[in-house]
């Protein structure tokens, strides 16, 4: 087998005197994987070597599977693993099997030009017309029209946002000192402790868990003036409930950026975001991206926040169909459009018109005050009201 | 004919395991075989992820059949706690015992106290049962549905294969059970748990294997029909459906068509039985619009 030859060669080389030993070669592979972003720590590397003890370490396919089964931890790791395996053991080596259907990226031609209807692309960002007089406070100022110092101040305040969450009821019970149904198990246990004499009736109630929020931030060219602020808002939400928040960036493809936003420091988190998002300032295909989001399990029962101006490059009916499904799956769908801060704004583009009937809340998010309102909305989680369409 | 009982030591190569899996009608590819083989040989839990219907649970069942061991299943759900997963005291029986002792006028209180925490009053739930049954296959199904707190707790059991009961002491397995964990990825499972396990991502079978599975499971299925179904299913999985069909669904669909007397993919019969394959109206419409319900449909 050609595959086997390539790997054997590499490992045998290791055995021949001057080079590193076979264990070093395999550990080096794990190191290369770590560099490629797979969490192949020493524990996993040890498992890898142990697994090879049960297989044929001179067979390329056995080495491939032993590594894949022990060093990888998720479907996202698999394409990286395949690439790394091929590169490390032989330039001509192809992994036994191509991994299909495991990425969430939606691809489209990156070089597609902006279509008609796209706002001006040069100079002044297309911020809403001046709604704020010079006298108005910073919190109501449009972030797109701020000086660098003012923006820094807003970012500082955003980092202090609490991002509280309306709890949902959990299936899990917890003991309660007052109220709730009788807890038979704990009561009987209590009786037992008293030698069979009836004791105090114990009660239990359902616990609560924070409701999940899934936020999609449009990072395409037309949102450039707001993306940074909205990502900082997302950071505050992730920091508030790290286990119940997922954030994706939407540009030419949907990218999960939650891990990047877990950094405590907002600056570091923004740096990590910049590194993680491959498609800043491109176009948007929201329809396909919402479809990609629906393939992931995150949206069910969650509050989905889509931050976009709705300049849709794809077909509007696709976006409409996906939004319809999203509205059936999610608890509520909040659409954040920075342009809504402008009183003169009317949702005229095909994309936003297709999406609005399925949106629960249509909010602005162009200023600090608007971001605070959005956070309060998530914390309040008012009963679902299908009110988006009335704005159209 | 293969021996009825197989022990783990008898499975000395992945090829041998593949043979046994095949004998039990589980047609495994190289990845699944190697994963299961290493899990058996290394005594490590096998963590299986993949879309619904790719055969994760089925693998655990087949391993149990191969080892002629009971399959002990722990179905995870939100709110699953130690008392439901590990063990619980049989409180009513303990109370009864106390009352009976009282009626009989037992005076030795210390001995009585020891008696009510006897092993016979302990109810073994799946995890404890798996440690006490040898050999056994423990299936922790859909771990992603349990709370994340539950994982920390499972981690302890799966790393040492011991459970400590404060009143009795530590109960440990002489030989650890074969453990299979499955996840549908509705939630990211904690890395500490995955690290103890062998990780395998299961995919939908390729064309050839799906044909073989259909023919093996449905003896009346003609080669022609199996090939048509596998080809159509393969294309549906690439068509961006809300819920691409899994093997379980293609089996149902083929069986439905067989029941109606099909020998090949007949468009009318296929349309009539489509509900066995696709469970979303939108998907059914997409598939009809793409013309995937005719043999060789959807091309050009």
From TrEMBL, chain A:
Do you know which InterPro entries this protein is assigned to? UCP010256, Uncharacterised_CoxE, vWFA_dom_sf
- For region Disordered, the annotated ranges are 113-138
In the UniProt record, the signal sequence range is none
- Which one Pfam family would you cite for this protein? VWA_CoxE
Q: Which PANTHER family match?
A: BLL5662 PROTEIN, BLL5662 PROTEIN-RELATED
Q: What's this protein's name?
A: VWA domain-containing protein
Q: Which source organism? A: Microbispora maris
UniProtKB/TrEMBL annotation, chain B:
InterPro entries in alphabetical order = AAA+_ATPase (IPR003593), ATPase_dyneun-rel_AAA (IPR011704), CbbQ/NirQ/NorQ/GpvN (IPR050764), P-loop_NTPase (IPR027417)
What is the name of this protein?
A: MoxR family ATPase
Coiled coil start-end: none
Top-level taxonomic group: Bacteria
Q: Which residues form the AAA+ ATPase domain?
A: 42-217
Q: Which organism is it from?
A: Microbispora maris
């Amino acid at each position: 087998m050609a595959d086997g030859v390539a790997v054997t060669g590499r490992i045998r080389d290791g055995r021949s005197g001057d080079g590193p030993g076979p264990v070093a070669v395999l550990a080096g592979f794990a190191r290369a994987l770590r560099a490629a972003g797979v969490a192949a720590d020493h524990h996993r590397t040890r498992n890898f070597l142990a697994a090879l003890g049960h297989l044929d370490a001179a067979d390329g396919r056995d080495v491939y599977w032993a590594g894949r089964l022990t060093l990888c931890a998720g479907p996202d790791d698999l394409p990286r693993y395949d690439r790394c395996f091929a590169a490390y053991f032989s330039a001509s080596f192809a992994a036994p099997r191509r991994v299909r259907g495991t990425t969430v990226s939606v691809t489209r031609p990156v070089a597609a030009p902006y279509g008609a209807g796209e706002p001006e692309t040069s100079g002044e960002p297309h911020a809403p017309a001046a709604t704020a007089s010079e006298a108005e406070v910073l919190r109501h100022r449009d972030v797109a029209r701020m000086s660098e110092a003012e923006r820094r101040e807003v970012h500082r305040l955003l980092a202090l946002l609490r991002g509280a969450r309306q709890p949902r009821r959990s299936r899990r019970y917890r003991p309660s000192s007052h109220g709730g149904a009788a807890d038979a198990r704990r009561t009987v246990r209590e009786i037992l402790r008293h030698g069979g004499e009836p004791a105090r009736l114990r009660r239990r109630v359902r616990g609560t868990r924070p409701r999940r929020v899934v936020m999609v931030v449009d990072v395409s060219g037309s949102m450039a003036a707001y993306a940074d602020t909205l990502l900082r808002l997302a950071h505050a939400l992730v920091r508030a409930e790290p286990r119940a928040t997922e954030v994706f960036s939407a540009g030419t493809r949907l990218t999960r950026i939650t891990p990047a936003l877990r950094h405590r420091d907002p600056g570091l988190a923004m740096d990590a975001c910049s590194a993680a998002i491959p498609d800043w300032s491109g176009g948007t295909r929201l329809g396909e991206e919402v479809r990609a989001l629906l393939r992931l399990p995150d949206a069910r029962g969650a509050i989905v926040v889509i931050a976009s101006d709705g300049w849709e490059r794809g077909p509007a009916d696709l976006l409409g169909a996906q939004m319809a499904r999203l509205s059936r799956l999610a608890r509520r769908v909040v659409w954040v459009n920075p342009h809504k801060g402008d009183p003169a704004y009317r949702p005229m583009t095909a994309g936003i018109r297709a999406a609005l009937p399925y949106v629960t809340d249509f909010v602005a998010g162009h200023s600090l005050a608007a971001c605070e309102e959005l956070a309060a909305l998530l914390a309040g989680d008012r009963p679902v009201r299908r009110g988006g369409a009335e704005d159209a | 004919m293969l021996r009825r009982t197989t022990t783990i030591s008898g499975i000395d190569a992945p090829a041998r395991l593949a043979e046994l899996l095949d004998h039990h009608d589980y047609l495994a590819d190289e990845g699944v075989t190697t994963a299961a083989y290493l899990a058996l040989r290394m005594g490590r839990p096998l963590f299986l992820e993949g879309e619904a219907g790719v055969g994760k649970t089925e693998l655990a069942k087949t391993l149990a059949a191969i080892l002629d061991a009971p399959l002990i299943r722990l179905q995870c759900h939100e709110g699953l706690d130690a008392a439901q997963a590990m063990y619980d005291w049989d409180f009513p029986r303990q109370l009864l015992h106390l009352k009976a002792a009282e009626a009989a006028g037992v005076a030795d209180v210390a001995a009585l106290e020891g008696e009510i925490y006897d092993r016979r009053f302990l109810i073994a739930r799946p995890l404890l049962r798996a440690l006490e049954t040898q050999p056994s296959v423990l299936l922790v199904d859909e771990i992603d549905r349990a709370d994340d707190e539950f994982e920390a707790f499972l981690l302890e059991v799966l790393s040492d294969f011991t459970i400590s009961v404060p009143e009795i002491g530590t109960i440990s397995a002489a030989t650890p059970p074969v453990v299979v964990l499955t996840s549908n990825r509705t939630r990211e499972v904690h890395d500490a748990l995955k690290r103890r396990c062998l990780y395998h991502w299961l995919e939908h079978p390729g064309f050839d294997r799906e044909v073989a599975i259909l023919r093996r499971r449905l003896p009346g299925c003609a080669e022609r029909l199996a090939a048509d179904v596998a080809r159509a299913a393969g294309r549906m999985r690439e068509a961006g459906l809300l819920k691409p069909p899994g093997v379980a669904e293609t089996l149902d669909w083929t069986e439905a068509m067989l029941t109606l007397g099909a020998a090949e993919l007949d468009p009318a019969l296929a349309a009539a039985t489509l509900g066995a394959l696709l469970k979303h109206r939108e998907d059914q419409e997409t598939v009809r619009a793409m013309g995937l319900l005719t043999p060789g449909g959807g091309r050009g």
